[in-house]
Amino acid sequence: MTEDDQKQAAAKAAVAYIEDGMVLGLGTGSCAAKMVDLLGERVQAGLNVIGIPTSEATAKQATNLGIKIAGFDQVKIIDLTIDGTDEVDPQRRLIKGGGGAHLREKIVASLSDRMIVIAEAKKRVQQLGAFKLPVEVVRFSAPALMPKISALGCTPSLRQDSKDDLFHTDEGNYIIDCDFGAISEPESLALTLSTMPGVVEHGLFIDYADTIIIGTNDGVEIIGAT
Ligand code: 5RP
């Protein structure tokens, strides 16, 4: 199976958890986009759900497919969030934010009864950190934060977009991608980053994912609650 097939298989398995009447957190990225496409097919066949998109890109995709979307002025609790990931370790800890949406993704995950994470096989790692950890920061703080974040033991770089300009998130912030190599203590790093003024959110998701669905060459593997 190609990576694309693995993503499709994981997305299809996750969509089977969606029930009529649910409020859904809709993730961001290529794997999540496959899930949104499949959800769109079910909505067009009569399923009634409300989606809370985690990015402008997902909002646009969902709207184009006829999926009703809402914000937190209309909805307080989310039944189920389905999202992708950049890495997942055996403790179901994640690195997210490759697409720059981890701030909204974490807010949505935190308000969800359940989070299902979908990914292709290569996202499964023994130890987090081969993927550079995205840290969203207030623009004003970025030059001051680079050396402070570097002192935590990483090589930081300000993310650029495809036009070589600085990348802006949906909330108008910058992202510092942090090359830590293997992260031996994700919990303490998460806490340290969360307490730095100017850091809006980092991409470590600890104790969020209830279920991981990995697309493999043989189908899907489900880790955690079924
Ligand atoms: C966006 C994310 C994505 O879920 C993550 O980057 C995975 O994306 P993809 O499925 O395209 O590999 O966290 O902020």
Percentage of β-strand residues = 25-35%
According to CATH, what is the class of the largest domain? Alpha Beta
Ions, cofactors and other ligands present here are: ribulose-5-phosphate
What is the string of SSEs from the N terminus onward? HEHEHEEEEHEEHEEHEEEE
Indicate how many domains the architecture comprises. Answer: 2
Classify the fold: give the CATH topology of the largest domain: Rossmann fold
Shape: globular
Helicity, in percent?
25-40%
**CA(first)-CA(last) distance:** 23 Å
Structural class: alpha/beta
Give the biggest sheet.
Answer: 7 strands, mixed
Radius of gyration: 17 Å
Question: Which segments are poorly predicted (pLDDT under 50) over 5 or more consecutive residues?
Answer: none
Number of strands: 14
CATH architecture of the largest domain: 3-Layer(aba) Sandwich
* Number of separate helices: 6
Averaging pLDDT over every residue, what do you get?
98
Strand order in the sheet with the most strands: 3-2-1-4-7-13-14
Tell me what you see in this structure.
By secondary structure, this protein is of the alpha/beta class. The chain folds into 2 domains: 3-124 and 206-217, Rossmann fold, CATH 3.40.50; 133-201, Alpha-Beta Plaits (2-Layer Sandwich). 28% of the residues lie in helices and 27% in strands. It has 6 helices and 14 strands. It has helices at residues 3-15, 30-44, 56-64, 102-110, 142-150, 186-194, and strands spanning 23-26, 50-53, 68-69, 78-83, 87-88, 94-95, 112-120, 133-137, 155-158, 174-179, 199-202, 204-205, 211-216, 219-224. The strands form 3 sheets. A 7-stranded mixed β-sheet has the order 3-2-1-4-7-13-14. A 4-stranded antiparallel β-sheet has the order 9-10-8-11. It has a 3-stranded antiparallel β-sheet with strand order 5-6-12, covered by helices on one side. Strand 5 and strand 6 form a beta hairpin. Helix 1 (3-15) packs across helix 2. The longest helix has 15 residues, at 30-44. The chain is globular, with a radius of gyration of 17 Å. The model has no long low-confidence stretch (mean pLDDT 98). Ribulose-5-phosphate binds at residues 27-32, 83-86, 96-102, 105. Pathway: Carbohydrate degradation; pentose phosphate pathway; D-ribose 5-phosphate from D-ribulose 5-phosphate (non-oxidative stage): step 1/1. It catalyses: aldehydo-D-ribose 5-phosphate = D-ribulose 5-phosphate.
